[in-house]
Amino acid sequence: MEGTDGRPQRIGNHPQLKVLAVKDIWRIDDEWWRETPVSRMYYDCQIDNGQRITIVRDLVTGAWFSQHG
User: What are the distances in angstroms from CA 66 to CA 4, 10, 33, 35, 58?
Assistant: First the structure.
């Protein structure tokens, strides 16, 4: 899912769904006092099918997921 710069390039296991542009990036760090803190990077992306979705990287586990609005 990610390119060499760490930003998302495609959606999941669907090589046909490509990220055309990253419109915004923000980071959330929370619950640092817990055993498993919350640390995530959010990418507001325009994809090639015309949709705009948020792709999230969990910085603790390294997992990627997407939020469709």
Answer: 19, 11, 26, 24, 11
Residues of the chain with pLDDT under 70: 1-4, 12-15, 69
Residue with tokens 């995530």: 40
Domain of residue 17 covers: 10-67
CB atoms inside a 10 Å sphere around CB 8: 21
Report yes or no on 4 lying in a domain. no
How many Å from the N-terminal Cα to the C-terminal Cα in the chain? Answer: 20
| Total count of domains within the chain | 1
